[in-house]
Amino acid sequence: MPPTDAQDTTRAAVFDVDGTLVDTNYLHVAAWWEALRQAGHDVPSQAIHRAIGLGASDLVEHLLGAERAREEAEALSAAHKTLYGQYFGRLTALPEAGRLLRRLADDGWKVVLATSAGGQELSALRTALDADEAISGMASADDVSAGKPAPEPVEQALELAGAAPERSVFVGDTVWDMQAGSRAGVTCIGVLCGGIPREDLEKAGADVVYDGPDALLASLAQSPLGRSH
Predict the structure, then answer these.
(1) Which pTM does this prediction carry?
(2) CA angle 51, 190, 80 (to 5 degrees)
(3) I need a surface site. Which of 4, 154, 168, 221 has the fewest CB within 10 A?
(4) CATH code of the domain occupying 12-23+92-222
């Protein structure tokens, strides 16, 4: 489908949430570690950390294999959700995350979140972020047939924004984010605040990498989000 006139001018700034805007990755690791341990699986925290960013079923398959995922993904996901829920009231936005989103909205970007979170978890993340006025839409992995690293979550975000890939930027903290953004044809910005090394993000498709939202905001004019598309 050819771009519309609106797509010719609309710019989308698409953001992952967990580990990118809100400091949750290591909380997810702890919750998944305990859920797996309770089910009799001894999985190192480092391996779990590398899998954060995948949807629950894909994460279980990545860690335990396809057969175990078919048998146990639903129960493990439910256990993780219960364990992670204990942190909802204490989630904290990463430094300058909310200010970054508000600045981009003021600059004319359509800010869209691309997250697999929903329900109470999404409400807790939005409360921690405290930038609802800057967010024009949210795309969840639940809304598409495949989550990251497939491109569909990013493509869904672009559809919500009404923006073409070549005028859009995706910011994320995992290799799965960078792969999804690259496959969707957008410029990819990686951030290190989720704990994944710079070289891994670059190898997965990051065009540029910053320490976190605060560093991106401080260098906004020189970043892909400061340049016209």
Answers:
(1) 0.94
(2) 25
(3) 221
(4) 3.40.50.1000
